[in-house]
Predict the structure.
Amino acid sequence: MMRFILPLVAFLVLVGFLYVGLNLRPHEVPSPLIGKAAPAFSLPQLAEPAKQFSPADMKGKVWLFNVWASWCESCKDEHPLLLALAQQNLVPIYGLDYKDKPEDAQAWLREAGNPYTLVAQDADGRVGIDYGVYGVPETYVIDKQGVIRYKQIGPVTTDNLQQTILPLVQKLEAQP
Amino acid sequence: MKKLLAIALLGLLPLYAHAEESRDMAQDLAEHPMSPAVEKRLVNLSQKLRCLVCQNESLASSHAELAEDLRRQVREMMEKGMTDQQIIDYLVARYGDFVLYDPPVKETTMLLWYGPFALLLIGAGVLYYQLRKRRRIVPEIQLTPEAQQRAAALLNDEEDHQA
């Protein structure tokens, strides 16, 4: 009897591991920046390059920081969702145009609509490195103290917007 | 023949794909002349760091744009005189232990570090147990000289039949 049960158990354990493995997303590396202050920077604004944007300007506000680019295909997947979110006026969306040409970025926003309160231009990707960006789009939730509270790797979906991001924004809004 | 040709062409594909992708480390080095000391450190260190985009490639071998940017960053930090450890700390603060091919021993990496040894021990235990059980099932029998002769004769007979 044992000689059948043991291999069966071993097989089931293996299947269990494989099943769990199916649902893991090795591409989503947990960010060590969560709970830390959002790295400081000062970058030209996309719309008015003469003006700068710095996260320090956002003290006292809860905001979303969305890293995107006009060359990024999956950014186009989340774009309608960001547009809808911007219309609801629940939380301001600031953009980081990552390693992009300003004219391409502006053409894309004109064509598809602009969900961003403001977009900063990270032409050489240095600020991206500071934020641990490795696959656009990425979206950060930053609280009133300027601390990163959540990072979404890959496109925002309706599910994680409704279940994670918006409840978190609401909670953070209630905090001083 | 056609099949062979197709396979040979498939084999060439990676070369073609590489030609299409962005720069690798050799091109980096050609474009940015740096002191031999920095170059050696850069090559050495980027082999120990993982490219976040193509996760099974090191920063040295990756063609991904992010790898290119990170190599630039590492080079600049080296030229500023930062030590390897400071550079590693800089990257870990942004990307986590995942950038290291040689992750530190911590609570979260215990299984990674000691799991294989645990499996080895379990395997050795099972082997030991099985061998002992086998010994019990197949006891050693001392053969009398006659029995041994008969056995030898039978075995030879068998061989003759097979031949």
About this structure: The beta strands of chain A are 43-44, 52-53, 63-68, 93-98, 118-122, 138-142, 148-153.
